[in-house]
Amino acid sequence: MTFTVWCPDLERVRVRIGDVDHEMRRADDGWWTADVEASAGTEYAFLLGDDDTPLPDPRSTWQPHGVHGASRVYDQDAFAWSDHDWAGRSLERSVIYELHVGTFTPGRTFDAAIERLDHLVELGVDLVEMLPVNSFDGTAGWGYDGVLWSAVHEPYGGPDGFKRLVDACHARGLGVVLDVVYNHLGPSGAYLDRFGPYFAGQSDWGPGLNLDGPQSDEVRRFVVDNAMMWFEQFHVDALRLDAVHALVDTRAMPILEELSTETARMSAVLGRPLSLVAESDLNDPRTVRPRSSHGLGMDAQWSDDLHHALHVRLTGETDGYYADFAAPGALAKTLRGAFFHDGTRSSFRGRTHGRPVDVHELTGTSFLAYLQNHDQIGNRATGDRISATLPPDLQACGAAIVLLGPYTPMLFMGEEWAASTPWQFFASFPDPELAEAVRAGRRREFGRHGWGESEVPDPMDPATVERSTLDWDELADPEHARMLDVYRSLIALRRQHPELSDPSLSDFTVDVADDDSWLVMHRGRFRVACRFGDVAPPVEGEIVLEHERLTVTATK
């Protein structure tokens, strides 16, 4: 077989197969090749220049020994897929469920997750969004410190394990969204810069990619090829692109637009819908505007403003970036137009921020709404869920606004039963110096916000992972079961009545009390009324769902 690697500035490259090193040939474009007898399962590594240190393949699809070990040849065509009739799943009118494979079940594997998929089907979920599954150093972690983007994390079950999970999802009618990180690499095992000019600049999270400098064409191809691999070889239905605002790219064709173009082509080839969902802090509608309208062509983006406005209204927290969202009518404004900061001053940033959404041009499908997600829980010092401080009646109101509003709703694993387990930040770097640096940095960060060191869990302690793992036995508890029934009922209503999943923003109206004590969403003939204070909202029509502070009515 032919081994290839891009090393444009090196004079010598070898590939090690077993104990034998083979010289590689350089082409004018900087790609090196070597034809060596090998097959699936063969382990190999590259030696750069005269350095005899073996390094894994930057495009490796199998890393059985971790991010520092040898790569293993993987045959993408050997897996026996059963989803030949899978027609795909688009974002429109879908409900998304975000989960982390390593804490979704005590088994912490893809196969263990498969055993819980029927719960998601019964809940009414359409798309399962998985936090990053690519290889990172250590066994446990959120996945955002990945360094080998094409290799599936071996402790979860490796590439075959992930394919089994995707195949099982499709068999149950569930689409799969995969979280991918192109804005930085993790702190351990990021060897790309030894191969070529992959890096440019540094973010708070790690080295960024050279997307617009000299020799950046192949770096961009590295990103695009990775994205297309997940669609074509692993059959995923959508990608969630982490923190795209951190991508430094000044070229006339931004990498996001390039990804959008290539995704559309791949969708045509595969004959099923494929989607791109961006996480962006820019509040710029151009992110989700079609390419034909001079946008970047993302199918959707997360709406943190909606989360913040809803969180403040429900909890009363106004620290940090929550402060601006305590303004009267903040939730109603954000529900009507996706962004609260649409050219308004952001006190957290110390400047004006954002741009208005044209509600006649874009629909709610372009924005994800959520009461909780991995960031908004895990980046709290103690990883506490909203259900840790919020009574069930108010959580039900928050769930109704998310699930019956015009936006694409997303739930975080365990939210549907008000799980008591926190979801805390954790990692497992084997390097003791790096582990201590992460531990100290985490405590220092929260210390600036008034948390004592003893209150911040040790991210390197295995007990932190254990605490963050869902306790499925809670489903038998009456209190948790009642919340699960609320979520199932809301999703069932959404499915049964098209008005309750209508993504139109131009026709969407919200009534709100002057003191924000109640809110009513108008959804066709339905009214979704939430009482936050002592004053009850006006309701009319037949009650189709009622839960203390929440009332859903329908008129003829």
From TrEMBL:
Coiled-coil intervals in this record?
Answer: none
**Gene name for this UniProt entry:** treZ
Please indicate if the UniProt record lists Hydrolase as a keyword.
yes
Q: Give the chief site where it resides.
A: cytoplasm
The entry's cellular-component GO terms read: cytoplasm
Residue ranges constituting the Glycosyl hydrolase family 13 catalytic domain according to the UniProt record: 77-494
Q: Per UniProt, where does substrate bind?
A: 240-245, 304-308, 374-379
What does the similarity note say? Belongs to the glycosyl hydrolase 13 family.
What InterPro entries does this protein map onto? GH, GH13_cat_dom, Ig-like_fold, Ig_E-set, Trehalose_TreZ, Trehalose_TreZ_E-set_sf
Q: Per the record, where is site Transition state stabilizer?
A: D375
Q: What is this protein called?
A: Malto-oligosyltrehalose trehalohydrolase
Q: Which UniProt keywords apply?
A: Carbohydrate metabolism, Cytoplasm, Glycosidase, Hydrolase
